[in-house]
Amino acid sequence: MRRATPVCALTLTTLTVLTALTATSSRADDAIELDTVAISGQEEPLTDISVQKLLKVPGSGNDPLGAVATLPGVTFSSGRQSEPAVRGSSPDDNEYLIDFVPVGYIFHTDNSSILSDNVIEDFRLETAAWGPQYNNATGAVIEATSRSPYYDRSQLVIDASFLKAGVFYEQPVNENQSFYIAARQSLFQFYVENFLDDEDFKFTTLPEYYDYQGKYEVRLNDTDRVYFQVIGSRDKAGLKFSDDADEVLQDPGLSGDINFEAFFNSQGLVWEKLYDNGLSHKIGLSHLEQKLGFNVGSDNSIKVKVDDYNLRSQFALPLGISHELGFGAEITESHISYGGVLTAPPCDEFEPDCRIVDGTETVEGSGKPVIYQYDAHIQDSWSVTPNWTLTPGLALSTDDYTEEQFTEPRLQSRWQFTDNWWFTQAYGEHHILPDNFGQYVVPFGNPDLKQPTATHYELGLEHQVNPDLLWKVEVYYKELNNIIVARASQDGYYPTLTDEEYNALPRYTNDADGRAFGAEFFINKNLSDRWYGWMSVAYARTFRTNNTTDEDFSYNYDQPVIINTVGNYRLSEGLELGIKWRYQSGQLITPLTGATPDADEPDLFNPVYGGVNSQRLPAYHRLDVRLDREVKTKGGWDLTLYAEVLNLYNRANVIGYEYTGADYSGREDVTDLPIIPNFGIKARY
Predict the structure, then answer these.
(1) CB-CB contact of 186 with 210 (8 Å)
(2) b/e map of 48-80 (b: 16 or more CB within 10 Å)?
(3) What is the dihedral of CA 494, 496, 498, 504, to 10 degrees?
(4) Where are the domains of the chain?
(5) Which DSSP letter does residue 107 get?
(6) Scanning 28, 90, 381, 449, which has its CA 20 to 30 A from the CA of 643?
């Protein structure tokens, strides 16, 4: 249980409606590798992209995790999707960790991350076949790490832009203890209504967020430290449609208020130690409180509260010069409290339009299950030869709710077969207990569901051309099984059943599977001749099969071609210019082919759709630019000023269609952000 857990798939619809209406590292050599993260005090490896570089990516707003979209294998369903989809998997298939402990979520609804750029040191993006220490993901793993507090100086940082404002304070207590605290608040809620010209709805709760993060560290000795950390975040929004709004005419169930709120608070205690014999460990004890609440219209309301208590450990022990043994265990106790009422049908991510009015029953209930999850792992980093490292591993997992046991082998290999050339391989089996746990509980879901699984295969080739330039190519294949789908519609697939017989069918089943494959090219140039940059080119395909309806179709995140180009040029001392250009194939949609009058409601029309994801929107591309200026004042303040222009050539990127009228007779393009300037300032004392 890692993030706020909705108890029905209707949450996806709610979030889509709401978000569619809302618009530094301490050391420059801390680095981010594309598949993994390495912290290095030496010259930045060419397989890595430093945090400092990601902070200056145009359009990221000083948010390195916001720049994750420039990395190979990462896509979004639209410009308004907050969490990344990686290599053909859903964003819901990812796992998120911060400083070794689980968190509720890692991205706000405006695509920015919950982490302060003043403390983030690195993050690990694992795109496939990751090590056995990660045990609950089939899509990707994102683990962020914040730096230790400074012991030699204090500082106060104030930063603000048009989108958000924050404050950061850091203070040593003595030579062995230090701390920092950060807090941020969104600002767009104060002016978002000025940019909206829509009489169909009004905000009842302006979309906003805040987050906070703190760390208190005690150095027991040179090889032993303990730190206590807190982190939390809150996102909320609410709106009300007018009675004659197109949304209400097409789905009367939307009449009334729509409100959404999610927040989490996490506290963790982590102990790190290195022993004389080379054994090292990291042990974390944490508590994660999550709450989610939403209501849609007058007949749909859900509230969920989850308290996770987690004990996690990782050990590393050198065994001679050729082996390093890694092992650990994790125990999670989850207390889930849920309750609510739904008149909506069960929905999944393949539905083009999950209308509340199509519900055939009212489902009401509550519960307080307690779930225990047990995980363990072991791996051996084996230096077979001076040029070949082989890392076999095994992940073990079980829980007392689904009562499934998983024994999942993992294997990674890196072989330098000649000077400056490497061949890499990886294989892994993975599973996930989805965050949308409402699909598993009575009466909203099916308690007999299995956990979705995936098998990953990966091959790579790297070549370092010179000390400043490297390119790499990776190919991958993923098999996905036991994907959860909603009960098929009664009219389309069960016309002979009575309402009572139809409602007795399981609301969700594991009747879908899928596959994804692709190739990614990446080239990275480190700073020389006053500039640096990287480019990634990806070709990928991803498909799903719904065995209930016998449909084979391309998945929502199937975007065959994605190109990212990032460059930064040092104009002079303290003045830098950056550019980012992204191209991706258009988003898939399920086309509307018409609408028919409803037999029981004369003013209601039922939409008729074509094949699932059978139409592709125009290609998406956009250019962002950024100018950074560093200034030192006589009063002791260090200022960083930046100006960004998003979508410089004002491309009208179509990310969907909106149909008008009760009979869906009109169609309007839904476009991503127009040209937008953004200015920011960071003052450090």
Answers:
(1) yes
(2) bbbbbbbbbbbbbbbbbbbbbbbbbbbbbbbbb
(3) -40
(4) 10-251+262-684
(5) B
(6) 28
Q: Are 359 and 352 in contact (CB under 8 A)?
A: no
Average pLDDT, the chain: 86
pLDDT tens for each residue of 427-455: 999 999 987 788 999 899 999 999 999 99
Answer whether 37's CB lies under 8 Å from 559's CB: no
**Measured between alpha carbons, how far is residue 476 from residues 110, 391, 513, 536, 673 in Å?**
30, 18, 17, 15, 32
Burial of 634 (0-12, 13-18, 19+ CB in 10 A): exposed
Determine the topology of domain 10-251+262-684 in CATH. Answer: Maltoporin; Chain A (2.40.170)
CA-CA distance, 650 to 468, in Å (whole number)?
34
- Residue 179 confidence class, pLDDT cut points 50, 70, 90: very high
Identity of residue 132 = P
Distance CA 355, CA 254 (A): 9
Contacts of 680 (CB under 8 A, 6+ apart): 61, 62, 159, 160, 161, 162, 641, 642, 643, 644
Assess contact for 83 and 108: CB atoms under 8 A.
Answer: no
Q: What angle do CA 516, 72, 682 make, to 5 degrees?
A: 140
- Neighbouring CB atoms inside 10 A of 448's CB total 11
**Strand 95-98, strand 141-146: pairing:** parallel
Distance CA 301, CA 295 (A): 4
The span from the CA of 123 to the CA of 113, in Å, is 12
**Contact (CB, 8 A) for 645 and 617:** no
Q: Where are the alpha helices (DSSP H) in 177-251?
A: 246-250
Identify the helix (H) or strand (E) that includes residue 428: strand 421-431
Strand, helix or coil for residue 216:
strand
Contact 67, 60 (CB under 8 A): yes
How far apart (Å, rounded) are the C-alpha atoms in residues 384 and 300? 59
